[in-house]
Amino acid sequence: MIPAVWRTLVVPISLRYDQLHVLLQLTFSWDNEHLHLFHPKGNPDREYVPEPDTDSANSMFGIEDIGTSEAYPYQDLIDGPVIYKYDFGDCWEHEIRLKHLLTFDELDGRALPSCVRGSGAAPGEDARGLGEDEDVSVPYDRKVINARLEKWATAGNRLLFDLNDY
Predict the structure, then answer these.
(1) Which residues pair with 6 in a beta bridge?
(2) In degrees, to the nearest 5, what angle opens at C-alpha 25 toward C-alphas 21 and 26?
(3) What is the distance between the terminal CA atoms of the chain, rounded to a whole angstrom?
(4) Which of 12, 99, 138, 159 could make a disulfide contact with 29, Cβ separation 3.0–4.6 Å?
(5) pLDDT at 166 over 70
(6) Is the Cα torsion angle 68, 126, 150, 5 positive or negative in sign?
(7) Which of 10, 17, 35 lies closest to 76, judged by CA?
(8) Residues 80 and 95: beta-carbon distance below 8 Å
């Protein structure tokens, strides 16, 4: 079954979980207002979180917290889907799958990261689900998404150029 809202992104294999979180926020026009975590779909006992806490209740239940800035989703995606939970109050769950590994030639000059396909309006940050508040949903617009992703990808270059102006 195809979900009502979906996006296909092309990202570098070297992407960390914290970077993937930022790309998902940009892709869906969210503002990082809620807690989030990632976990392999087949292994809910391993969670990737922004700030791991070894003294948390998770450790008492055998759940391993790993920092999102220290881990890469690639190997988890080779093994199967990864779940991205965002907004624990509304419990939005997004399934992330590795569809295809591209060679350099297959990129054909495409920028990384980029959105290549998608469908459905993204729910607004506090929409509490799909279709409940049409005024806060964000229509799918690949050009707008790719402009945001390009801005993120070139932020370091712009900073260097700005520093050279002084």
Answers:
(1) 119
(2) 120
(3) 54
(4) 138
(5) no
(6) positive
(7) 17
(8) no
> What are the phi and psi torsion angles at 106 (to 5°)?
-70, -20
Task: Note the pLDDT tens digit of each residue in 26-36.
Answer: 999 999 999 99
Nearest to 77 by CA among 50, 92, 103, 99: 99
In this structure, how many other beta carbons lie within 10 angstroms of the beta carbon of residue 68?
23
What is residue 161's predicted lDDT score, i.e. its pLDDT? 58
> Could you tell me where the beta strands, DSSP code E, fall in 34-166?
36-40, 46-49, 64-67, 82-86, 92-96, 114-119
β pairing state of 46-49 and 64-67: parallel
Q: Characterize the bridge pairing of strands 114-119 and 6-10.
A: antiparallel
Report in angstroms the alpha-carbon separations of 105 from 13, 30, 33, 79, 109: 15, 32, 38, 25, 8
Instruction: Give residue 152's region: left, alpha or beta (phi > 0; psi -120 to 50).
Output: alpha
What is this structure's pTM?
Answer: 0.87
Identify the burial level of 9 via C-beta atoms within 10 angstroms of its C-beta, where 0-12 means exposed, 13-18 middle and 19 or more buried.
buried
For residue 152, give the nearest of 48, 13, 20 by alpha carbon. 20
Mean pLDDT of 9-22: 96
